[in-house]
Amino acid sequence: MSAVVSPIREPLITGGKSYHQITEDICSPTERTPTTAWVIAFILAVAGLAFYVFCVGWTIWQGIGSWNLNRTIGWGWDITNFVWWVGIGHAGTLISAILLLFRQKWRTGVNRAAEAMTIFAVICAGQFPLIHMGRLWLGFFIFPYPNTRGPLWVNFNSPLLWDVFAISTYFTVSLLFWYTGLVPDFATVRDRAKGLRKRMYNVLAFGWTGSAKHWQRWETLSKILAGLATPLVLSVHTIVSFDFATSVIPGWHTTIFPPYFVAGAIFSGFAMVQTLMLITRKVLNLEDYITIEHIDSMNKVILLTGTIVGVAYLTELFIAWYSGYIYEQFAFYNRVLGPYWWSYVGMMSCNVLSPQIFWWRSIRRNILITFLMSIFVNIGMWFERFVIIASTLARDYIPSSWSYYTPTWVEIGLFIGTLGLFSTCYLIFTRIAPVVAIAEIKSILKTGGDQYVGPNAHAHHASEQTTTH
Amino acid sequence: MERFVFDSKIKNVLFGFMGLGVLCLAITFFIDDELHTRFWTNFLHNSVFFTGIAFISLFILSAFITAWAGWYALIKRIWEAYSLFLIPGLVLMLIVVIGLWGGFHHLYHWADAEAVAEDSILLGKKGFLNKGWYTVGTLIIVGIWIFFATKLRQLSLREDENQGMNFAVHRQMRVWAAAFLPIAGFSSAAIIWQWVMSVDAHWYSTLFAWYTGASWFVSAMTLTIMTLILLKNLGYFAKVTPEHLRDLGKYTFAFSIFWTYLWFSQYMLIWYGNVGEETIYFRERLDNYPVLFFGNLVLNFVLPFFILIREDNIRKYGTMMFASAFVFIGHWIDFFLMIKPGALHTAHETLAHHGATAEAAEHAAEAGHHAASTFEIGFTVPGFLEFGTMLGFLALFLFVVFRNMAKAPLDAVNDPYYAESLQHHA
What range does the domain containing B238 cover? Predict the structure, then answer.
C-alpha cells in the first residue's frame, strides 16, 4: 500500500516516468561523451584553477606582503572568502539531513548535487586559512599532537582552533553521507557498464549487490549519519561566528551572531544550489526531476532565510543604539554611513530587499529571475562578510590608525581561482556520478510521480493501464 | 463529527484552580513588600509566559501551513484554540500597562522618572523604554497577533464547510499564514525587549528575542502533549496515534536542543567577552540563583535529551506526560529567572531611595551588598504561592482553550491534509 498523498500536493516527478526510465535519464549523462558545452566550461574552470595555483605560488613566494593587509586589517578578502565558502557549504547537509528529518520529499531531486557542492565548497573554504599562514608547509601546526616544538602549541582557547575541528568534522561527515548515498547508484551505473568501466564502478560501489541486507544496513547508516550531521549544520557556522563574536570588538561582539550566521549560511547555500541546479537541469535534461516545484520550494527557503537575516540585521542595529555603548553605536553608524557604505547597501539590497520579490508565486517559478536572484544572493552574502570584516577593522578605537582597505590582484585572483577550483570539481562530478540520487528518486515515485498524484494523476494512470494491457 | 463537550465537571476543576490562583495572588499581595514586587513579578511572569504560548502556537500553525506539513491536521484545532488565548493575554498585559501608568508597580527601572534623570544609560534608551511605547507596542503588536489568530481560525472553520476538491480556502490560509511569519519575527522581538529584557534595563543581548521564542516554542509543544493526552483520556482524539505523539515529541526534543544551543551561545559569548556590563546579568544569577540557574539546564536540556532520544519512550503516553510536565515547568522557571532577579534589584534600589526609614536601611544594605547571599522565597526559588499562581493561570488558559475548542468540531475533516494525517506513520 502506498502512502496517502493529499490532493493539494503537486507532483515532484513529471513525465510519467517508470523506474527504468529514471535509471536511463539519470545514468546516461555519465555514459555519453561530454558535450561541447561541458568541454568549454571545463577548459574555463581549469584555467581558473591554474590561475589559483599561480596566485597561491605568488603569495608563498612573495609572502603575505603581496596582499594589501595593513595595520588594522589583519584579515581581508581571505577571511571573507573563507566564511563565504563555508556558508555555501551549508545547504547540502541541511537538505540531506534536516530536510530528511522533516520528511520533505522534494529534497530527493536536489540532495546529491547539493551535497557534492557542499564538499567542494568546504574544500575551497579550507584553502584560505592555510594560505594565510604564509608558510603552507607548516599547516600541520594547527593540529595538537605531541611534538618537539616546545611552547609552540595550539591555543585551545581560540575559536580559530575550534574551527579546525568543526570544519574537519563537518567535512568528514558530509563526505561519508554523500558517499553512502552514492554507493547504490554507483552499483546501478556499474550494472549498465562493461569492461574496465564496470570494474572501476564495482570498486566505487564496494561490491554492492542490492540484497535486502545491504539495503537494511544502508538505511541504518543513513539514519545515523543524518543524526550526526544535523547538529553539525548548526555547529560549523556557529563556530565560524565565534571567530568574531568572542572578541570585544564593537560590531563583532554580539550574541545573535551564532544563529544569524547559520541562517545566512543556509541562505547563501541555497542560492548556490539554485545557481547550479538551474544550469544542471537544463544541460543534462533533468527538468522532470528538478521541477519548477523544486525551484519554487528552494526560493521559499531563500525568502525565509533572507528574512531571518533581515531580522538579525535590524536587531543588531537596534540593540547597538539601545546598548548605550558609544563604541558599539559608532561601529554601526560606520557600517551604514562610513567609507564602506556601498558594501552595506550591497548587502542589504541583495540579501534582504531583493529576495522579497519571492513573495509572488509567479516570480518564484520564473527560471530567469530565479537565476539572477541566486547570483544576487551570492554577491550579497559575500558583501555581508566583507561588511562585517573590513568596515569594522578599517576603523578601530584610535582614529590615527584608521585606514581603507582595497585588495591586490593576488587577493582577487585567489578568490576567482577558488571559483575555478569549485567548478572543476563540480564538472568532474557531473561526469562520473549520477547527479540526482537514483535510489531516492525511485523511493518517492509512487507518492510524487505525476501519474500517481496531482491534477493529471487519474487520467494518466488510466491511459497507461490501457496501453499496458 | 466529534465535538468537545466542555462539561461542568472539567469547568469546576478549572474554576477550583483559578480560585487557587486568585487566592495565591491575594496572599502574595498582602504579605508583600510595600511595592508589591512579588505580586507584580508573578503577574508579569505568568502573563508573558501564557500569552507567549498562545503567540507561538499561532506561529507554529502558520509555519506548518506554509511548509505544507500534513501530519498535524488531526490536532490543529488544539493550536487554533491556544492561539485564541491571545485575547485574554492582551487583557493581562494591559493590566501591567495600567499598573505602569498608575505607578502601582516598580517592575521596570526605566519607568521611574527620578531614577532615569540621573542615569545616563537609561536616558539614552528613553526613546524606546517609556510608558507610551510600552502601551502602544503592547496594543498594536498583540492586536496584530489577535487579528491573524482570528483570521486563520475563521478560515479554518470555513474550510469545514468547504467540501470537495476545491482548495480555495486553504490557499487563502497559506497567504495569511505566510504573511504572519515575518510579522511574527519582527514583532515578537520588539515586544519581548519591552516586556522582559527591559526588566534588566541596563543590560542587552541581541540573541534575547530568539532565545525567549525558543523557550515559548518548547513550552507550547509540551503543553500540547499534555492537553492531547488529557483529552485522549477523556475519550477525544481517538484517531490520534503514538505516531502523532512521536512527532510532537520530536519537536520537543529538537527545540529543547535548539533552546540549549541559544542558551549556550548567549552565555558563552558573554562569558568569553567578559565585558562587565554584560556579564553582570549572569553573575547575578550564578551568585544568587544557583539552584534555578543550573536547574534550568537540567530540566530543559539534560532531562528531555535523555528521555526523548529513545525511540520507545517518545511513543509512550505516560512517559511523554511525565517528561512534558517537567520540561513545561522548566521553561516556566526559565522565564522566572529572566524576570525575578532584575525586578528584585529594582525594588531594592527603589526602596533604598524612597522607602520607609527602617526598611529602607535594610534594603540599602541589600542593594549595596549584592554578592551577599540573600535568600528570599518567591525570588531565589519559586514558593508555593508562585506554583499556586501558575496553576491558576494555567487553569485560565485551559478554560479559554476548552471554551474555544467546544465551539468547533475537533476533526478538521476538510483540511486537505486530513487523510495524510489520519494515515500518518513515520
Answer: 8-422
Provide the 8-state DSSP code for B102.
H
pLDDT for the residue numbered A467:
39
Can you list the residues of chain B whose pLDDT is less than 50? 370-372
A66–chain B nearest CA distance, Å: 33
Q: Are B226 and B328 in contact (CB under 8 A)?
A: yes
Collect all residues with Cβ–Cβ distance below 8 Å to B357 and sequence separation of at least 6. none
Q: Name, in order, each residue with C-beta under 8 angstroms of A325's C-beta and a sequence gap of 6 or more.
A: A250, B277
Is B3 within the bounds of a domain?
Answer: no
- Which residues of A are less than 8 Å from B426 in CB distance? 103
- The Cα–Cα gap between A102 and B280 comes to 40
Residue B2 resides in a domain: no
Helix-then-strand count for chain B, H and E: 17, 0
Number of structural domains (chain B) is: 1
Nearest Cα to A88, choosing from A177, A174, A185, A161? A174
pLDDT at residue A138 in the model: 85
Per-residue pLDDT tens for A12-41?
A: 888 888 889 889 888 888 888 888 989 999
Residue A99: the pLDDT is 84
Q: Does A319 touch chain B (CB under 8 A)?
A: yes
**Sites in chain A below the pLDDT cut of 70:** 1-2, 458-469
Contact state of B269 with A255 under an 8 Å Cβ cutoff: yes
A11, A17, A18, A20 alpha-carbon torsion, rounded to 10°: -130
The answer to whether residue B263 sits within a structural domain is: yes
Contact A262, A233 (CB under 8 A): yes
Q: What is the pLDDT of residue A226?
A: 87
- What are A81's three cell numbers? 572568502
Name residue B126's amino acid: K
Who contacts B410 (Cβ-Cβ below 8 Å, separation ≥6)?
B1, B2, B3, B4, B77, B236, B237
Helix runs in B198-275, H state only: 208-233, 242-273
Q: Are A225 and B236 in contact (CB under 8 A)?
A: no
pLDDT at res. B122: 92
Q: Are A354 and A292 in contact (CB under 8 A)?
A: no
Residues of A in contact with B423 (CB under 8 A): 3-4
CA of B176: which chain A residue's CA is closest? A359
On the 0-12 / 13-18 / 19+ scale of CB atoms within 10 A, A326 is exposed
Q: Does A8 touch chain B (CB under 8 A)?
A: yes
Angle CA B43–B47–B53, to nearest 5: 150
Minimum distance, in Å, between the CA of residue B128 and any CA atom of chain A: 8
Give A282: exposed, middle or buried? Use CB within 10 Å, 0-12, 13-18, 19+.
Answer: middle
State how far residue B265 is from chain A, nearest Cα, in angstroms: 7
Q: How far is A81 from chain B (nearest CA, A)?
A: 24
Q: What is the mean pLDDT of chain A?
A: 89
Q: What are the two backbone dihedrals, phi and then psi, of residue B381, each rounded to the nearest 5 degrees?
A: -135, 155
Best mutation target, A1, A8, A329, to test chain B (most B CBs within 10 A): A8
Residues in chain A within 8 Å Cβ distance of B124: 324
Q: Do A238 and B261 touch (CB under 8 A)?
A: yes
Whose CA is closest to A275, among A295, A291, A304?
Answer: A295
Outline where DSSP puts E strands in A225-372: none
Give domain status of residue B250, yes or no.
Answer: yes
pLDDT tens, A267-278?
999 999 999 999
Question: Is the full-model pTM beyond 0.80?
Answer: yes
The grid coordinates of residue B220 equal 507550547
pLDDT digits (tens, 9 = 90+) for A350-398: 999 999 999 999 999 999 999 999 999 999 999 999 999 998 999 888 8
CB B231 within 8 A of CB B211: no
Whether residues B261 and A319 touch (CB distance < 8 A) is answered with no
Contact A3 B423 (CB under 8 A): yes
